[in-house]
Design a protein that fits this description.
By secondary structure, the chain is an alpha/beta fold. About 30% of the residues lie in helices and about 20% in strands. It has 13 helices and 16 strands. The strands form four sheets. Strands 1, 2, 3, 4, 7, 8, 9, 10, 11 and 12 form a ten-stranded mixed beta sheet that branches. Strands 5-6 form a two-stranded antiparallel ribbon. A hairpin with an 8-residue loop joins strand 5 and strand 6 (about 135-140).
Length: about 400
């Protein structure tokens, strides 16, 4: 895989265009790319490009948790009109890519437009000598078989990272059980953010194009409330785009672990972000429901801090009236020993042992019934209120 933009990390431009309906997505995307100088600045005709949507679990479009198929179609048509040969792929949190693309509606679009699903089942070890934290990754084989990647994230909140953006969406480029292993290995939100920055800069997508037509707030990235945001964002720089997403959510960008990590390690300079198109101040959602607490989402690390952590750090909570006892939360928990289980039998909802919980929130993210939310204990709320 190659990249046509040698100084991509120095390009801090972000295009912000209004788009209140997916029916208008192609026009809005065309307008946005014109503001960046045109598609020919980023691709050559005949190149093979991979579209990387946000599939999560392959939910139906109505849920609002995945890249919408009409948005996906508009992007595909735009790149095909410029002479690109396309494929697409993602590794969902549970299940197979083949199943996820069917239930999400993306397979129907790809079939209509005549391009195939890339290999996101097998992985290839790739060296990452410039990494902040990790010097190698095992990437989906399909990524190594194309000339470039187009990242299509979704405008959403996220319990661990506060928001799902361009950088976080690339986590789906790691196939299989790797994602759970990284959660177990990197239990601090900043270290997890550093890993995501390493991954994003290794893959170095040509462009990041965010579906912000309909977003998700609150208990994201899957169980929150849909919200009309009415924008599309485009950038060659994932950190610049994510900075604008945070601002639109009325969230301090430096509370987002990936942005803080990229800035602290000299990979990104927030004061150099330049927004083209709409004025971002006119699009900010002041009341957007997102975690603005200055406290870490994973809490203090280390043995001696574990007791304190139980009383102050946010934690997942199961709502028994919504729980169907399917056991998916137990299945996806990467902690060892597992932080929750059917300790009282299948007649009751799973019970957490919070002393074992690593605050990865995989259970909350993967719950099919929206029965798990994140709550901050009373002492934690008090400390947040007085900003200690």
């Amino acid at each position: 895989m190659k990249n046509l933009i040698p100084n991509q990390s120095l390009d801090h431009r972000v295009v912000l265009v209004k788009c209140h309906s997916y029916a208008d997505a192609f026009h809005a995307l065309s307008e946005g790319m014109a503001l960046l100088g045109g598609l020919d600045q980023f691709i050559h005709p005949g190149e093979r490009l991979l579209l990387k949507p946000n599939l999560l679990l392959g939910d139906a479009p109505e849920r609002g948790s995945t890249t919408h198929p009409d948005f996906f179609k508009a992007v595909a048509q735009l790149f095909q009109s410029a002479g690109a040969r396309l494929c697409y792929g993602d590794s969902p949190g549970i299940g197979t890519p083949q199943g996820a693309v069917r239930t999400s509606g993306l397979a129907e679009v790809a079939d209509e437009l005549g391009f195939d699903l890339a290999n996101f089942l097998d992985s290839v070890e790739v060296s990452n000598p410039e990494g902040i934290l990790l010097k190698q990754f095992e990437l989906a084989q399909g990524i190594l078989e194309v000339d470039g990647l187009i990242n299509l994230p979704k405008f959403k909140t996220h319990a661990l990272m506060r928001m799902t953006g361009a950088v976080k969406n690339l986590f789906g480029c790691l196939p299989g059980v790797q994602k759970a292993a990284f959660h177990a290995r990197l239990q601090d939100d900043m270290r997890f953010g550093e890993m995501l920055v390493d991954l994003a800069e290794l893959i170095a997508p040509r462009l990041h194009i965010m579906d912000g037509v309909i977003g998700m707030e609150g208990n994201g990235p899957r169980s929150g409330e849909k919200r009309q945001v009415g924008v599309i964002l485009i950038s060659a720089n994932p950190h610049a785009l994510d900075t604008c997403v945070a601002r639109l959510m009325n969230l301090d960008p430096m509370l987002v672990p990936t942005l803080r990590a990229a800035h602290q390690h000299g990979r990104f300079f927030p004061d150099q972000v330049r927004v083209l198109g709409e004025k971002i101040d006119n699009c900010i959602l002041d009341d957007f429901d997102v975690n603005r607490s200055p406290a870490s989402t994973t809490g203090p690390q280390g043995f001696y801090m574990s007791l304190f952590k139980q009383w102050v750090t946010p934690r997942p909570v199961i709502h028994p009236e919504q729980c169907t006892r399917c056991g998916r939360c137990v299945q996806v928990c990467p902690a060892e020993p597992k932080a929750l289980g059917f300790w009282d039998g299948r007649d009751h909802s799973p019970i957490y042992h919070y002393q074992d919980c690593i605050r990865c929130y995989c259970c909350q993210e993967m719950c099919p019934e929206e029965a798990i939310s994140v709550h901050t204990p009373f002492l934690g709320r008090v400390l947040n209120a007085i900003k200690i």
